[in-house]
Amino acid sequence: MIISSNPTIISCTSPSIIPPKPKPRTPKPLTSKTHLSKTQLRPHSHLPIRRLSSLHICHSSSTKTQNQDLSVQANGPPLGRNGNGGGGGGGGGGSDWTTSVLLFGLWAALMYYVFLLAPNLIPSLDMYFLQKLLNLKGDDGFVLNEVLVSLWYIMGLWPLVYSMLLLPTGRSSKSKIPVWPFIMLSFIGGAYALLPYFVLWRPPPPNIDEDDIQKWPLNFLESKITAGLSLAAGLGLIIYAGLANGDTWMEFYQYFRGSKLIHVTSLDFLLMSAFAPFWVYNDMTARKWFDKGSWLLPVALIPFLGPSLYLILCPSLSSLLTQIPSVPADSE
Questions:
Q1: Residue/partner pairs of 123-130 with CB below 8 Å, 24 or more apart
Q2: Is the confidence at residue 193, as pLDDT, over 90?
Q3: Which of 6, 82, 120, 137 has the CA that lies 20 to 30 A from 60?
Q4: Tell me, what's the pLDDT at 308?
Q5: What mean pLDDT is reported for the chain?
Q6: From CA 170, how far away is CA 286, in angstroms rounded?
Q7: Is residue 194 very low, low, confident or very high in pLDDT (cuts 50, 70, 90)?
Q8: Cβ distance 245 to 147 under 8 Å?
Q9: With a threshold of 0.85, does the pTM exceed it?
Q10: Where are the alpha helices (DSSP H) in 217-332?
């Protein structure tokens, strides 16, 4: 062993052990069978920085959007120029078509039953009842059944109630089918004429401004006087039928089993009563009154009286429009 003068350098006579340098590898050309490794597919170091910056921008913008959505859900604009209103039906396209198909099947089954299966023992008796109810036949000494008279006149009030539920908030903004022809036909055909519109209905309702509310027929249908008169008339008819004795109700039951007119009209009353709670809910959500008026939904199950009471207590559209805050031009 030789020790040099420099204390930091030590040399040995034995051969030094030095690891061999790795040979450089030439990259193989890419062919159709060559598979890229994960290290070769790794992106450049500066790309994640751009992703982070873009995510930061998207996060800030999404936060504003979420805050706006929460404010709209908390204090959403009522049905008017600044909002389309709630609308109860909605949902996805598949659910809309499923509901429409089911309603169309119901309507087709009802039409089949009314024209082919409904009892019709004495057709001349239906014509006689119709003439008496329309006051087309003079006094011949025959007194009409009190329950039948009440049913007949309350079926003339049902289309008015549906008009107050459908025309303001039950119209379709996604289809060009107007609601007023079906309402006019319902004064003759009842629920049998309204069901095709239920099939074609596509919420939400179109916008309504203050000028529309002050015009006919919305000014008449939105009036609390109209709602109060319809409730009073319906309540009087129901009391009139309820005060009838047992023999009168048994006579009406016999008419129901043998007369097509009375049988079909009675089913019409049940259909009107069955669909009314849904349209009460639709109108309630469109007026942004569900939180305060949800207790009226069980009340709406009461035939005629429940929906009529709701129309008296619900807020008018004109009062909702006055609550819409003005949006400054700079905020847009």
A1: 123/260, 125/258, 125/259, 126/259, 126/260, 126/261, 126/262, 129/259, 129/261, 129/262, 130/261
A2: yes
A3: 82
A4: 96
A5: 76
A6: 9
A7: very high
A8: no
A9: no
A10: 218-221, 224-242, 246-258, 260-286, 290-293, 296-299, 305-313, 317-321
